[in-house]
Amino acid sequence: MISRLAAILLLVASAGTASAQWLSTTYTLRPGWNAVWLHGDASHLTPAQAFASETRISEVWRWNNGSTGRQFSFNAANPSGGLPDWSYWSLNVTGNTLASLPGQTAYLIRNTHSANITFTLTAKAMAPEVRWTRSGANFLGFPSRAAGSTPAFPTFQNFFASFSAGISGSPVFQYIGGNLSSANPRAIPSYSAERVDRNQAYWFEADVTNDFYGPYSISFKNGANLAFGRQRLTSTLLFRNRTSANLTLTVAPVNSDAAPGGQTPVAGPVPLTLRSFDPSTARWNETPLGASASIVVQPNSTAELPLGLARTGILPGAFHASILRVTDSTTLTQIDLPVSATGDTNAGLWVGEATPTGVGSFVQGYAGTEISTLAPSLRLLLHVTGAGSANLLSQAFLGQRASDGADCVATNQTALKAENLPDATRFFAAHMPLDRVIACSGSVAAGSTLTAQIQIPFDDATNPLVHQYHPDHDNRSATGTALPAGKESANITRNLSLTFTTDPPGAAPGTGWGGNALGGTYTETLAGLSKNPVTITGTFRLQKASSIPNLTQ
Fold first, then answer.
1. C-alpha 206: how far from its chain's center?
2. Which domains does the chain carry?
3. Cα dihedral 22, 24, 25, 28 sign
4. What is the pTM of this model?
């Protein structure tokens, strides 16, 4: 009755520490043989490790992806170590060929106990990925609603209503426990009564080649999944409605389980935002995702869900992980998408501007006045080392270091490879004294203040009181002898203060704020320009230009 069978997914035999979003699933095994569909990836474990505390599990077999295109007439294929269709592990046996437990894969597991047993497996969440084949046997599972949901698991008839051609007229086989025989696995008696258990795998014939795993499919725009890493800020989910009716999808964040021993610890959930474009301002607005959000997808159409990352909620250097759970209004599916982000440190080169908005007044009884909105802004170049210390720079170069060709942040052009200078980038702060690296006090973090003192000597070329070609401002007497400070120009001291705020000045956090965008309030007191010090206030914003923590001078 079934002539072609094969299944899905490549073996991923990875080992060592991994960063992942973890979900724990409890499986119930009848006495004898059971077919399990592993939605998550447990390839960090060998079978011996996974079942070390459950010795009543004596054998585990994985069906490989169409190794030979085996065909059969009356029943599903039985496991055999002599065939490349199967990889296996047996308790206390050498020569096992199953080295790990990759996800989105079907397994046969043998329970030697006389009663049901349960075991819990913690695995890395994975987006669904199946591939139906016509050349052999399909041994697949599907992301139906979780056990205990209301309503319960959907029936085969309901689950495949939008893709009836996939299994129409063909038997579906399931393992029912006990020994393997002509009656085990058995053909399900009724599509309309039998329910699709998300933790089981089923044998079935495929009339078409397809990737169906539910009434809708999920993909990522431009291939950008929900692994944000250290730098990425946005991602867009694409939902394809396979049905002929409107489909409402609900997405909800779920915390990751604790990472198993030997794996990267999870510092906390990933703070996602919902993004919406406002054409009146030509800007993206962002709101926290909250408990859940819904999106309506038109029949046989695709809808987008733009997501952002609130990096202010990501700890520097820490790994954050969670799950984005997708359910649908037809109560058929539960799909768990992995979400992750790593907090970048503030080390590197930051480029931005301080914008003065007010200046102190010496008029008695008058505190100050606003500066014209056309007032010039001041370029800020700030480099933060891996240890967290910060320096204000007069100029910075991004290019290849002359000594070893490595990418670097340099304070002087001579430190770069001469032949690659056309590809280098130069940043320059015209208001700063030339060729300076000025150490700052404090730290670069929300709620912290960074201070620096900028000394401009009376005879420095950047001193605003010095004019090389004006006899009254060249610091020379009528006879050409040098004059001391204060005769024609004075030493100027600039005390600069940058206070970093959680939110952007005067606005809600936008994409990247707290990650590769920082800012806050700016204050500067100048002494030497007039009889009394002058205080300027305003705001500042910085954008990360490089994550290189070392400064080449």
1. 36
2. 22-204 (no CATH), 216-342 (2.60.40.10), 348-552 (2.40.160)
3. positive
4. 0.77
